[in-house]
Structure formats: structure tokens, C-alpha cells
Amino acid sequence: MFENQNNGRFVCYETKQFSFIIFEKIQKQKMFLTECPRDAMQGWGEFIPTDKKIDYINSLMDVGFDVLDCLSFVSPKAIPQMADSAEVAENIDKSRSNTKVSAIIGNYRGAEKALKHQSVDIIGFPFSISETFQHRNTNKSQEEAFNEIIRMLELVKSENRQLNIYFSMAFGNPYGEMWKWEDVDFWAQRFSEIGIKDILLSDTTGVATPETIALLFEKIPAKYPEINFGGHFHNRYEDSYSKLKAAYDQGCRRFDSAIKGIGGCPMAKDDLVGNMPTEQVINFMSVEKAEHKLNLLNFESAYNKAKDIFHFQLKQIKDDFKNYIYRRLKMYC
Ligand SMILES: CC(C)(COP(=O)([O-])OP(=O)([O-])OC[C@H]1O[C@@H](n2cnc3c(N)ncnc32)[C@H](O)[C@@H]1OP(=O)([O-])[O-])[C@@H](O)C(=O)NCCC(=O)NCCSC(=O)C[C@@](C)(O)CC(=O)[O-]
């Protein structure tokens, strides 16, 4: 099968007597975007006052993201920054927005706490392809986590909400454990069997390359069409385009990101590897002419609030923009 630039593809059909090639129009799929202020905030050193969090999250609710991953119901000792999530959850204004709200949880108790809040539509559990990271992050083995997820799924169904699974360390790990795509496939199969419908292939510590991203997005989603797969990348600012492109070219239209790429998982390594920056996803969509429904004016106003919370500077933004233009020019020259 060969895709071309005109929203179409040449498909080769073979019967016993004939083989023929036809041109099929393909519907351009809309992007499905998740903004992750939870990932940005959870490792932030100074405590962000609760009212600032609420104000920031409500400004993001106006942008038009499909999902806002903004809450966390884990141990406050492990992640003190998110200890006020219950109060934040009670003050999310969903009246003007279709954006779904997602909360991260690390055990059944966290799921129960999250689901008490009517604003929470989705809970997300970080299942790890690396056994070491499963222990580090949730104090469980993979099998223990899997069994707990089965219980959580029952709970989520009875509450009429949704359970997303992150495949942490899906592209490799920094602990010296062997990585192969077949391990990701093994777990995708098991999660498919229990009826999980949403899996985010996550590059927790930024070890993925465009090649491993392309490999995983080529192999895995095709085998499990009943599951919606997405990309949850952590990377350096300048690697954003090539990583998005690697997944996009394999048909992935679902991406998680955080403004300015701030954040990461504090349980993974000592140094946080930044998130996929949302501005880079927006740049990417404009280059690829990908359809989305973000309100960019509202995005700018949320971006200004992020600037205040995370103290990033205008000069830094200008430098990033200059670097971005330079790289694009280099690609075309
Ligand atoms: C998962 C647990 C809770 C298990 O924690 P545990 O140690 O197994 O639980 P425990 O039952 O032994 O309890 C330990 C303490 O935590 C408390 N506790 C226990 N559970 C809860 C709860 N739900 N809510 C509030 N408190 C809780 C519990 O009460 C106790 O407090 P103490 O008695 O010592 O005062 C713990 O290991 C933990 O909090 N880990 C942090 C997980 C986390 O938030 N990681 C970051 C988010 S995941 C991520 O960022 C990756 C992602 C999503 O971006 C994808 C990717 O890139 O890979």
C-alpha cells in the first residue's frame, strides 16, 4: 500500500485471476489532543498555590483539547505538589467545555478517590513495560499492577467512566533492562483481552528514537484495532518534530503534550526529561495541515498563565522559535 500527498492511497488487490491497483480516498482523521498540566506540575519544586492551579486549569478548559490530564490521586508523600487535587477537581469549570478531565492514579484506593469527583471522566494508570519502573513508580510488580487494573476496570465500568493505560517505558528504559517491541506486544495482547480500549505508548525518560517510534506504531496498533493508541512522549524541545512525525506517518493521531514541555515523571530518574511541548505539536499540525479544533487565542492566554506559574522567559520562547524556523529551513534547503 502506498500513500500519496492527496489524501489517498494506492491499494493493491489480488484475486485468483486478477491483481489490480486502485486509488482510495482516505478520510483525514482529526487529531486527538491531551494537554497534561499534571505531568508539568507533579515534579515542580515550589508548591503552586491551589487557586493558581484552578485558574490555570480552567483557562486550559477553554482551549478545546480533547482531554485535560490535570489531577493526581497518589500518595502525597510521593508527589506533594498534587496533594490538593481533590480541591482542584471540585473547582473545574466544565460548563463551557467538551474537554474530558483525566486523573492519574497508582492504586485502587486512588481510583476510588478520583471517581468520587463528578468532574473526573477518565482515570489513567501507569503500567510499565519495565519491571523496575513498575516498582519504582507504584510499588508493585507488573503482575500485581495488572491484577489491580482488572479490579479498577470493574469499578470504572460501574461508574460509567473510562480507564486509560499508559505503557510507561514502552520504548526502552534507563535501567539496563532489555527492551524489544515484542514485550510491548505481549502486554498489549493481555490488556486487549481484559477489554482496555485506550493505551498511551509512553517514552517516560526520552529514550525513543524516530526509528523505535515508527516501529512500535507500525506493529502494535494494526494488531489491536479495538484499542485507541496514542503517543505520550518525553523529549528535548528540538527532537519534537522528528518524534511526532515518526508516529504520525504510521497513522497515529493521538498525542499528549504539555505547554513548553515542562515536567516529566519524578519517579523515573533524578533529572526530569521534559514533555512533548504543546507549541511544537501546534507547529507540527500546521506544517502537516492536520485538522484540529484548538482555539489558538485561548491557547495563548493559557500559555501566558503557564509563563507566570513556571517562570519561563520571553527570550527563551524567542530562541525556541528561532531554532524551530532554522530547522524547518534546513529541511527545505
Ligand atoms: C502508587 C502508590 C500510592 C502506592 O504506594 P504504596 O507505598 O504501595 O502504598 P501504601 O499502601 O504502602 O502506602 C504508603 C503511603 O501512601 C499513602 N497512600 C497510598 N495510596 C494512596 C492514595 N491513593 N492516595 C493517598 N495516599 C495514599 C498511604 O496512606 C501511606 O501513607 P503513610 O501511612 O505512610 O502516611 C505510591 O507508590 C505512589 O504514590 N507513587 C507515585 C506514583 C506517581 O504519581 N507517579 C507519577 C505519575 S506517573 C507518570 O508521570 C508517568 C506518565 C503517566 O506520565 C507516563 C509515562 O511517561 O511513563
TrEMBL record:
Pathway: Metabolic intermediate metabolism; (S)-3-hydroxy-3-methylglutaryl-CoA degradation; acetoacetate from (S)-3-hydroxy-3-methylglutaryl-CoA: step 1/1. Residues 30-300 form the Pyruvate carboxyltransferase domain. It catalyses: (3S)-3-hydroxy-3-methylglutaryl-CoA = acetoacetate + acetyl-CoA. Pfam families: HMGL-like. Its EC number is 4.1.3.4. GO terms for molecular function: hydroxymethylglutaryl-CoA lyase activity; metal ion binding. This is hydroxymethylglutaryl-CoA lyase. It comes from Halteria grandinella.
